[in-house]
Structures are given as structure tokens and as C-alpha cells.
Amino acid sequence: MSFDAVFGTILVFLSLGFLLFFFFRSKRIIKLIHQKDLHSAREIQNKLNGK
Amino acid sequence: MANNPLPIESELSRDLSLFHITMMGLGMMIGAGVFLGIGNAIFHAGPGGVILTFSLNGVIAICTAMSYAELSSAIPRAGGAYNFARLAFGRGPSFTAGWMEWFASSVAGSLYAVTFAIYTVRYFQGLKLLNWVPFSIYTTEKIVAFLVAALFLYINYRGASETGKVGAFFTLGQTIFLIFIGLVGIATAIIDPSRLQNFSFFMPHGWDKLLVTMGFTYVAFEGYEVIAQAGDETIDPKRNLPKAMIYSVVIVTLTYVAVSFASIVAVKAGSLGVEGPVWEWIGQFKERGFGEAVSRLMPYGDFFLTLAVIFASISALNATIYSATRASYALGRDRLLPKFFSKISRKQRTPYGALLFTGILVIGVAVLLPTMDVASSASIMFLFLFFLVNVSVIRIRINMGDELNYGFLMPFFPWIPLFAIICQAVLAVWLVHMSPIAWIIAPVWVISSILIFHFYSKKRALPTRDEVQVIEEEAAPEGEGYPIMVAIANPNNAIPMVRSTYYISEAKKGRVNLLHMVPVPEQVPLSDAKDLILEGKEAIIEVMLHLCIKFPITTTIRYCRNIARGILSAVKEKKIEMLIMGWEGKSHRHAFSLGSILDYVLERAPCNVVVLKDLGDKKFKNILVPVGGGPNSCFALEMASILAEKHDAEIKALIINDEKGKIDIKRASLARKTGGPIAFDRIRVKREMAPSVSDAILKESEHHDLVVLGATQDPLIRQLTRDSITYKVATGCDKPMIIVKASAGFKSWIRRWL
Fold first, then answer.
1. How many whole angstroms separate alpha carbon B640 and alpha carbon B634?
2. pLDDT digit string (tens) for B383-407?
């Protein structure tokens, strides 16, 4: 396999991995916001940062 | 007041579920980009390039989708990018956003009409049913595109707009069909692994071609715009809008990648009619390449694909005409475009003015431009639009994050929108290789929006319900003076601030502007809020009685949605050098350090800020000033000096943990370019080492009757978090206190701009 093919395949899986990571992370954030009844950006940010 | 209509607003019924709006987004995305894009992407970037094109575009798209998700969850109203830009930047940029939105949706509509025409003509040509037609294939496609666009313009005029509920099932069918193609492709590769040899020339034309193919297929990821438009009609929009945006991007990206893979492995090398590498064979058909590949993948593949394209193009065409008409209608309604755009047919109840101009745009672009120029123009315009939305999300989070009610907040802020901005800028620039015509059309359209706004819309635009309005304002007195603004909340906070303000204004030879902001709840139009100003008037009169004898005074009362932003807008407008505010000593909301107004103002004020806590009419003999060596310390010493002169008090400058003796008050004060004198003869310096700076200051404050505290020079975010020294001392000290912050120059300019 050529370098292009190896590098390209890694890039495809990496980008799909990022996509799924953002998907699950976003789901978690939406769940947290609605469970804890958070409102402002600062409140949510503080909660996400564990403060 | 009697003339004003009651503040009752009508709203659409909320009956679109998460499923419906996800399908609406998918319907917009799976319209043409994938059907036209795959063949062209294979032609330009090769077999590996087409898969990378869709997977990398998916990452950029999800970043922008998160921006849309955050903004839509906080502002779930129809209007999409136009609304976001209006809130973030005001009328001018929002007009540009609406103008681009109109064009992008219209051109996307042109693309769907062309896609419909290409696949329909190709199918009937394959059945030899078009032999009687006297035109070339290209001309026939253009005629069909014209007819289908005209038909759907008429359908929109008749008011049969596609609803999410009906379109959802068509979209579900298309999506399932595409997923099925992808699965058949994967199964084919498993059964016959030799087909993976089709990937042996992974990127035959080099990696730079990838940027070109990513650019012109980006139009296949623009569905979150239509989801944002459905904000008024969605059940639980704060939860469902962001979910639908994220879900739809993930679903289309995975589908596109699978379908691209299937189209490469669909053709067996050396099979009937296939000469040379497979990717070259598919690529030569360009827009039709995907169809040719799928027809070899499964029996009746051609027929099913044509059906899918017809349904996809029709539903997407109808939705884009509807969306484009809505965008131009909104501009007409707000008088940013002529009133004709907002004319509604009495019989059909549809905006025929906006529809007429949308029709001219859709048909004109579909008929006059080659297909790839249409796709590139739509992509560039969407890239510009998403660029603006990504900038808006940063600005709105920083400026209004404390007052909006978010249903979703993107992680890794602001890196995600910044990443999207950079990627979209690169893709837009690279599209010049694909279509120089698109790169002429898009900037001309954007520049025309600026010219139309300045020469037409600016004077005619109707005021929005969110703008700050001046209720009462006196003319500024003649003569020079140091401009000081005193923000007054109510009579209770006004009087205790008077004496200190008096001393400071006298020392600075100031002219004082008293400001009272009237916060008006979201539900009440600003024009109906006059009853709320009585308390502010009373406070201002009290203060004037004390100060007007000595100083030139002007007063201002303004309505606003947010007090902090209202104060900053007044400070900026009146070129104020010093802002004086009061603080009751605690924050009512846990998320804020000193309070939602003070936190905001201290972070962004373009001038010196002085915050007074519990000073009243007290006499001070011992003033404590913790000194860290920065500009805020010098400013704190200056304020302490003013009060010390008046009260004949002593100042103790407390320097903590300065092991090497680097902090030199005199040298620091001389280094200042602006600022008043410091009473060095009244200052005693005390140096000490302590494990906790805030504890040491609090302990020392017990022996003093006033603490003057400079805000710390920590990075902006940390400055007012609950970890900061300022917060710990301000909340832990029960003595009268002044918190000061010197103008941060460039840093505060950046914060204000953002």
C-alpha cells in the first residue's frame, strides 16, 4: 500500500472518530443541561469544568 | 401609550418533533450535493479523495453545526443566520447575512433543479425515449431545470409549502436507500476483496485537489440552516434543535462516506466497457458518475437511483424555495428591502413579492450557469454564511452568555468555531480553482449587500425590539472636563455613592453624567416600557441635588434588555474616561463573582472603573491598598490618595510575597502614561510573606477602615472566577471597600469587539 493510501485511511478513520466523539460529547452536554436545569453559559461552563 | 398595540405576540403551534426536524435537515442535505458531487469528486481527487472529501467535510460541518446548535438552542426563533447576526452585530451585518441566506438558498434551489434535470434526462435517454427531442442533452437539461423550478415556484405561490411532517417520510426513504447502497457496497467488498484494488491510486492528482472537492461538495452539509428556521414550530426546541443538527450531520457524513466507498467498489476493473482504472472510468461521467457506478452495483440500481434523485431533488427544491422566500420576505418585512418583498397575496396568503424575485434568481442561475458553477456558487455563499455564524457564536457567547438561556453549549469554546472559520475560509479560497465565475458572483453579491444597506436600508429599517433606546437625555454642558459617568440603579444605592463621587469628581475636575438604565423584560416591547422609569428618575434627582451645585451634570435614562450592555454602550458613545458604580457586597447568582452586571462591566469597560461598596458618609483614617505592581495598583493608590486628602487619612500599601523587591510604587506610578497624582507623603509601605495572599489582605484589613483593591491582572477568564484574589477579598472583607480597574486598552477593546 502506498503512503497516500495509509495516511488517507488513517485520516478517514480519525475524522470519523472526531465526528463520533463530538456526537457523544454533545449528547452528554445536552443531557447535563436539562437534568441540572442550567441556563446561562457561565453556569453551564462552571458545571462542565466541575466547579 | 394608548396608541400602542398590546404586547401580545402570535406564535406558530409547536408540533414538529425531533424526528421531523432531523428529517428536514437530512432532506436539505441529501438533495444534490452527494448525487452530483461524488462523480466530480472522483474525477478531481480520485477514489481515496472522494471518501476523504466527505469525511473531512463532516468534521468541519459538525463544528459549524455545533455553532448553529448553540445559537438555536438559545434563540429558538425562525430566521436562522439573519437572527444570529442581528443579535451579534446589529443591522448591517444581519442584512448581509439575510441577503446571503436568500442567495445561498436560491442557488441551492437552482442546483436541485439542475440535479433533477440531469438524472431525469439521463434515465429517459437510457430508455431511448428522448430521441425525438431536437435539442442537445445540455439544452434539454436546462429546459427541464427551468420547467421544474417554475412548477415549484407556482406550487409555493399556491401555498402548498412542504411541511416537515410530509417531507419527513420522503427523506427517510431516500436516506434508507442511500444507506442500503452503502451497505451493499461494503458487502460487495467483503465478498470480492479484489475490488479494493480500485483504491490503489488513492490520490492520483495530489492532495491539493482535496480542498477543491471539499469546497464544492460542502453544499451537501447545509441542512442545519433549515433546522434553525424551524425554531418556532419545534416541540421543546432547546433540546431538540441542537440534537437534530448534530444527528443530521453525523447521519449524512456516515452515509456519504459509505456511499462514496460503494461507488468505487461498485465497478469491477476490466468488466464490460470499463477501460483503465475504475476511478477514471467513473470520473469521466462527472455529475452522472454516481449513477453509472450504482447501476453496476445492483439490479435495477439505475431505476431506484433515479427515483431517489427525483424525490430528493423535489423535496429539497421545494424546501429551498420556501426557505429563500422566507429569508427575502423577512428582509422586506423589516424594511431592509423594499416593501414589495413583504407583499402577501390576499387570496393565497403567500409572499408573492419575495417569491417573484426568488424565482428570477433560481431560474436565472439554473439556466445561465454551468452545473459546477452553480454548485460552487451555492457552496461559497453557504461558506460565507457559516463563517458569519461562527463569528456570531463567539461574539454572542462572550457578550450575552450570561443572559441567554442555553439548551446546548459547545465544548472546547472558542476553538471549535475558530477551527471552522479557518477551514471554511481555506475551502472558499480554494474554490477559485473550481469555479472562477463563482468567485466573481459571491463577492459581488456580498458587496452589493453593503451598498444596498448603506444607500437604502439604513434609513428605512424598522427599529428592533432589542435595541437600546434613549428615553430622556440632556444636552452635554459646554466646556471641557474629565468625563465621569455614575451608573445609578435606585435611590437606595444613589445616595451612599454621592460623597465619594463628589470627592473623585472634584479631584479629577470632572463633568458628571448620571446614567440610569431601565431593564425591560423580553416579553415587553421597549416602546411600552415608560412606566418603569419612575424609580430611576427619583434616584437621579436625589443625586443631582447633591452634585449639581459643584459640577456640570447631564442625565441620561435609557431602556435596555441588559443593563451591563446598556451601560457599556453609553460609556462608549459618550467617550467616558471613568465609570463609577455601586456594589451591595454579594452576588445573587452563584455563577457570578461580583454580580452579573459588575462582572461584565469590569471585564469589558473601555475606561477606568471604580466600584464603591458601603462607603456612605463614613470618615476614613486608615486606608489599606494591596499592591501587586500593575496599573490597577497605581490606580488604586490614586483613588486612595484622593480620599486620603479629603479625610486626612494614612495609606498603607501592602506588598505581599515580593521576595526580590521588584515592586517599586514610585517607579510604577512614573511609568504610567495617564492618571492623576499619588500622595506619596501619606503612604507607608508594608512588605510581608504569606502562604495565602487573600488571607493576608483580609487579616490586615481588620486594622483599617477602608480597603482600596485593584482588580488582579490574571488572564481574563480567571480574573473574576471565584478563585481570584479580587473575589476572595471582596466577599470576605466586611469593611467599606473600593474595587478599581484601570482601562485595559487593547485587551478591553478585543473583549468589547468580541
1. 10
2. 889 999 999 999 888 878 877 889 9
Provide the chain B residues 29-48 that lie in CB contact (below 8 A) with chain A. 48
All three cell numbers of B455, joined, read 444607500
Distance CA B83, CA B484 (A): 35
Residues 6+ apart with CB under 8 A from B82: B94, B97, B98, B101, B327, B330, B331
Task: Using a CB–CB cutoff of 8 Å, tell me whether A34 touches chain B.
Answer: yes
Q: Which residues contact B563 (CB under 8 A, 6 or more apart)?
A: B517, B519, B597
At B470 the pLDDT is: 52
Split at pLDDT 50, 70, 90, the class of A12 is very high
Angle at B327 between CA B243 and CA B80, to 5 degrees: 25
From B56, B242, B254, residue closest to A26, measured CB to CB: B242
Please write the tens of the pLDDT for every residue from B721-751.
445 777 778 888 888 888 888 876 555 555 5
Q: Do A25 and B62 touch (CB under 8 A)?
A: no
Cβ of A30 and B239 within 8 Å? yes
B407 contact residues in A (CB cutoff 8 A): 30, 33-34
Instruction: Answer whether A38 touches B (CB < 8 Å).
Output: yes
Compute the nearest-CA separation of A21 from chain B (Å).
Answer: 10
Nearest C-alpha of chain A: how many angstroms from B721? 10
Neighbours of B390 (CB within 10 A): 26
User: What average pLDDT does this structure show over B490-494?
Assistant: 66
Q: Which amino acid is at B127?
A: L
Grid coordinates representing B59 are 468534521
pLDDT of residue B474: 53
Model pLDDT, residue B479: 57
B55 Cβ under 8 Å from any chain A Cβ: yes
Q: What is the pLDDT of residue B717?
A: 41
A28 touches chain B (CB under 8 A): no
User: CA of B722: which chain A residue's CA is closest?
Assistant: A51
Is B374:B118 a contact under the CB 8 Å cutoff?
no
Q: What is the DSSP string of B88-150?
A: HH-HHHHHHHHHHHHHHHHHHHHHHHHHHHHHHHHHHHHTT--TT--S-HHHHHHHHHHHHHH
β-strand partners of B609: B579, B741
Give how far Cα B286 sits from Cα of A2, B20, B138, B279, Å: 26, 33, 14, 11
- Rounded CA separation B733/B694 (Å): 10
